[in-house]
Amino acid sequence: MSEDAIFRNIPQFTVLRFARYLNFLVNLPDVVEEISSSEMAGIIGIKPTQLRQDFFTLGGFGRQGKKYNVRFLIQRLGEVLALQQPQDMVLAGVGHLGQAIANYQGFERFNLVLKGIFDVNPKMVGLSIRDIPVRDLDEMGSYIQQHKIRIGVICTPHHAAQNVCDQMVEAGVRAIWNFSPENVTVPEDVVVQNENLSVGIMNLSYRLNRELP
Amino acid sequence: MSEDAIFRNIPQFTVLRFARYLNFLVNLPDVVEEISSSEMAGIIGIKPTQLRQDFFTLGGFGRQGKKYNVRFLIQRLGEVLALQQPQDMVLAGVGHLGQAIANYQGFERFNLVLKGIFDVNPKMVGLSIRDIPVRDLDEMGSYIQQHKIRIGVICTPHHAAQNVCDQMVEAGVRAIWNFSPENVTVPEDVVVQNENLSVGIMNLSYRLNRELP
Are A198 and B23 within 8 A, CB to CB? Predict the structure, then answer.
């Protein structure tokens, strides 16, 4: 198999672990040039054997006791996760959650850049969040087309979510990150990730009640 | 194996699917009494075979073409996910994200009840969110002890997260739901779920660039 084909067949849980590794590494102080798998596993909270197996998947490295070059790992994980090129995003809905996400400064480290913010509320339109003006939702479609944006973040109330999603997809968005409580549906050539808060807390409840001794 | 033992050994991805099923079912209009596995799978966006296999895990049902009683499924999933008894939560940090979560009305449907809200900002202390007063963070420990609260939600800035986490655990919290960008660490007898926004968007980026044709 070619390297590209291997990158296409990574199970979702492994992708999530890779993302956690990259997030951890990118946030290390610049002075840290090397790290061992056991140190890293300990801080992230996963088994060292799991981490070494994942590193092996990344390209044949991952030996016990060895130290890894942080820059190399960051570059390698960025390649696998397809984060080398900048990717632009739009966000719709600037209630509390939308404002929290628009203000979040972690995404740029992964080349993910929020470009446009949209809302229907006239009180919000014209304001700026981190120097990005909030525009009227009516302008979203043409903005997406003009800037060839492929990632859309939905933070609207649930009743507006599917409509906003349809507008994003119609204009060219190919990945929907949905924070509204509504599960939105998309065509087959679009990916959607529904970040439902209730699902997260139910998972935590399960672990609290079923995993702890 | 006893039923309880089976409930203890469910892989995390299956738990997440169960939570998605329950969230979907609870949000159905009351008039919907029955649903087929294929209908449900279609709306949620997973394979019908996967859903039927999961229903089989839930207790030996899950046949093709059969309709399921919605109330029965809700009850069964609630049992598996340990949601039958009310569970109280506290939340620390009422910036935009904290306010979004405190305002979120979906948790009560799963018997998860936000009881106490805490912040260090004197401008926030004394205000109320959904009739819950915001209290000074100094009062959090005694509040947790007094009300025997086991779930803590962290929405503080990253520099405060570990300290708040330690205070929660010290007072008796056994499950931490962490929305700060900092990975917090906990003793072995506490579960922690770090909801890192960057990890979510990296997963979406992977799917956009590696899974779509």
Answer: yes
What proportion of chain A, given as a percentage, has pLDDT over 70? 94
Q: Name beta bridge partners: B141.
A: none
Residues A114-147 pLDDT 10s? 999 999 999 999 999 999 999 999 999 999 999 9
Question: Using a CB-CB distance cutoff of 8 angstroms, which residues of chain B are in contact with residue A99?
Answer: 96
pTM above 0.90, yes or no: no
Q: d(Cα A135, Cα A125) in Å, to the nearest integer?
A: 5
Instruction: Out of A58-62, A171-175, B117-121, B176-180, pick the least confident.
Output: A58-62
How big is chain B, counted in residues?
A: 213
Residue A78 has pLDDT above 70, yes or no: yes
Q: Which residue of A has its CA nearest to B88?
A: A205
Across the beta sheet with A112-119, the strand order is A128-129, A132-136, A112-119, A87-92, A151-154, A175-178, A191-194
Q: Is the pLDDT of residue B14 over 70?
A: yes
CA B102 – CA B128 distance, rounded (Å):
10
Please answer yes or no on whether B207 and A198 come within 8 Å at the CB atom: no
Contact A191 B205 (CB under 8 A): no
What CATH number is attached to the domain comprising B73? 1.10.10.10
Q: By residue range, what is the domain housing residue B30?
A: 3-80
**Cα B125 to Cα B120: distance, rounded to the nearest angstrom:** 7
What is the CATH classification number for the domain harbouring A194?
3.40.50.720
Q: Does B209 fall in a domain?
A: no
Element (DSSP H or E) covering residue B21: helix B12-26
φ and ψ at residue A18, rounded to 5 degrees: -55, -45
Of B100, B112, B197, the CB nearest to A201: B112
Inter-chain residue contact A7 with B210, CB threshold 8 Å = yes
How many domains would you assign to chain A? 2
Domain check: are B104 and B33 in the same one?
A: no
Nearest CB neighbour to B205, from listed A87, A106, A181: A87
The CA angle B106-B183-B202, to the nearest 5 degrees, is 75
What ipTM was estimated for this complex?
0.90
